[in-house]
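Hi C.,

You asked whether I'd gotten around to modeling the 207-residue construct. I have! Everything is below, sequence then structure, no commentary in between.
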Amino acid sequence: MAFVLPPLPFDKTAFGDVMSAETFDYHHGKHHNAYVGKANDMVKGTDLEGASLSKVIVAAKDKGNKGLFNNAAQIWNHTFFWHCLSPEAQTIPSSLEERINADFGSVADMKDKLKAEAVGHFGSGWAWLVLNGDKLEITSLHDADSPVAHDGMKPLLTLDVWEHAYYIDYRNARPDYLSTVLDKAINWEFVAQNLDGKGTDRADQEG
């Protein structure tokens, strides 16, 4: 067995001007796929061959194997990101809205804070809405870093702020990309599911 490129959970043409098929061709078909190939090459013949993706990520971090960590974590990060997207605008489930209101004041305030974190993130990386204990928090992680590698950081929602996520459709306008995705393309049902603390499992795969 080896890691595979998971299919997109939607048609790549479904988002119209929000996110183009060309973006998915590059972002999923080339970038995500390249991480899969490199990670498979790196674990082949090692004691991590056959281990789950999440276990490889943690082990690579513990061993200081940056190359394997970066590629394995990017497989997981991207898989999780695709599940965070919806081509149709969704109403936020009440269970999630209540938690957001309790920790941020309102959905609008949460979106503003998440967007500010993503816009202000220097260089490449990911902005995250996470569950830390009983509290929702917003943070960002650099490059390929992932909540999978951090104890107590349970992922709910992520926004990809690597340039390849938005350059084709938005050029260098990261704020426009983030506003559009947050307002029109989030799978809030998936985000709400992750309140159970099992978000890591939903983007994991066996090796």
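If it helps when you're writing up: The beta strands are 125-132, 135-142, 154-160.

Thanks,
B.
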